[in-house]
Automatic annotation (TrEMBL):
Belongs to the histone-like protein H-NS family. This is DNA-binding protein H-NS. InterPro entries: H-NS_C_dom (IPR027444). The lineage of its organism: Bacteria, Pseudomonadati, Pseudomonadota, Betaproteobacteria, Burkholderiales. Coiled coil: none annotated. GO terms for cellular component: nucleoid.
């Protein structure tokens, strides 16, 4: 049976090893980043400036949560609600999960993928 003191000593040695490894990996990552910056002529504003922040905001566009059945317009539930949903029960306009997960695909492709999945599963 290993004693408490031995286990604590092992933990301390492991903590030191973790810190040393992390520091070594950080130094290597910084070195790779510096070489990429030099190679491609990247400036700090390209990464941390307003343009980079705006591009990142575009990538973070939210998924629609509500759909107007009449027009097909969608709303994520953020900000001012559009007229087609104002003063109405929002549950009537909720997009079901399976609709959002396949909404980018044409319906024919969604149907064919559904049947392909079933044939793979042996259904």
């Amino acid at each position: 049976m290993t004693s408490y003191k031995v286990l604590v000593a092992q933990r301390d040695a492991l903590d030191r090893q973790i810190l040393e490894t992390r520091a070594r990996e950080i130094r290597a990552a910084i070195s790779r980043m510096r070489s990429l910056v030099m190679e491609h002529g990247i400036k700090p504003d390209d990464i941390f400036g307003k343009k980079a922040q705006q591009a990142q905001k575009l990538e973070l566009k939210s998924t629609p949560k509500y759909r107007d059945p009449a027009s097909g317009a969608t709303w994520a539930g953020r900000g001012k609600p559009p007229q087609w949903i104002q003063n109405k029960n929002r549950e009537d306009f909720l997009i079901q999960f399976w609709e959002t997960s396949t909404s980018a695909l044409p319906k024919s492709q969604v149907v064919s993928e559904y049947f392909e999945d079933e044939t793979r599963a042996g259904v």
